[in-house]
Amino acid sequence: MDYKHYIAQKIKIDSVSEEEIADLIALPPNSEMGDYALPCFRFTKVLRKSPVLIAEELKNAFPTDNVISEVSAVNGYLNFKINKTGLAKAVLDKILIDGERYGSSDIGSGKTICIDYSSVNIAKPFHIGHLSTTVIGGALYKIYKFLGYNVVGINHLGDYGTQFGKLICAYKRWGDREEVQKGGIHAINDLYVRFNNEADEAMESEAREYFRLIESGDKEANELFEWFKELTLDYVKEIYKKLNITFDSYAGERFYTDKMQPVIDELKEKNLLVESEGAQIVDLEAYDMPPCLILRSDGASLYATRDLAAACYRKKTYDFYKCLYVVAYQQNLHFKQVFKVLELMGKEWAKDLVHVAYGMVSLEDGAMSTRKGKVVWLEDVIKKCVEKAYAIINEKNPDLPDKEATANTVGLGAVIFGALYNNKIKDITFSYDKVLSFDGETSVYVQYTCARANSVLSKCDEVVSLPDGYEPNIEEAEVIKTLASFPETVLDASVKYEPSYVARYAVELAQKFNKFYIECKILTAEGDAKNFRLCLTKATLYVLQNALALLGIGTPEKM
What we know:
CATH architecture of the domain at 112-362: 3-Layer(aba) Sandwich
Mean pLDDT: 92
């Protein structure tokens, strides 16, 4: 049950909607005050009364029932206590029936959401800077699927530009097909780095000519390009598989080569395209933005040109409800410009385009810098996390069967969770020790809690059923209340494009369960208490697994 809306619909305030009231309802800092609280300070202008008096009047008018057992007014806050017996029964019944579908809904039925994320560059290995876009996009993909949306994951490949002419030039000079095939993406990257280190004007000219040959359809140049692309995708798909990442389209920049001209023509027809120093631009000065460059003075297209074409293609092909771009915050201006140009073109759906910006990732020894040689490949980060996880597991539980598989699940989970736990816009300093802590706010802590719940359940042979009329104690009630909020958490994460809500929820639920586990006997309890606590343990396991699955993280049975 959505208790915030249940409460909000029973409160009537002129010119204040149910949705606004529900948004204000929060969890009190002290659960003894109540399960939910409504601050009344925001209503003083509307009602022209003090918040203390407003809270008192709303309390007197609020009808208690079998859901809300008590309403109190304290210092301008309206506090609500939920009928814990009824809540426990309703929540546990729902979870035990729904299982892995608990928290899902059909709210997105009939609506398509496109998510542009990861967007790797052909011929360049994944570095740790690609981690956030990949796992944020991957988590949003799973969250929207969970809520019934049709989701289209798009990997907008960086497969257009003079760098591919440089790569062909380098390969023709120094490359060996057998060695490149064997070395894959890193062999290609080595050739590209060598070109940039050794290129003179003649080589730069040759590279430009090779790129022209790619564009003009030259057979040899395009065969080499497609080979480089194949080697890149073979490499990145292995990483995507490890991180539980899904794509439905790999249509990159090059895909839109023949789709840009209609957009350019439309800009001209609508008198939006103007010449500036030989280049073609859309003037955005009236919107406090620099001009959006559409064509260079030599006629070459730019990122904005291709993004405009991509947006139009996606709307025509998928008729999206929303189209998300999971791209670093450094591109804020670029997307503001592109979205504004589409709006000026009369595309009413421009309002449905969303830039999901995120912060940067660095290791503890400093930020990533290509020029300073401090690039860290994502595959190396994953490998190191898995190795460290194995060492920790081997030390804590040397007799654990299939330690390699468990370490793989734990290590990969730590990489993903480390990038998702904080608000997406924050810069992240990635620490191997922190993300692999059994005691911190980590996926390892949550996975270990799942293993603990599994262990309890595996020791119970009898059939367990949820008892009627059981009144939970404080620790049990805290777990129940947190379980009840999972569907709302998932919905909030989808509305605010914030997977960290789910990650933080998982840690909070694990903490509440572990406190319950320590304070309450489970297997040695008797009668209704034992049955209730086993059901509570099973429900917690379901929900923790669901939360981690939405982030792309698995849960080992034992740790």
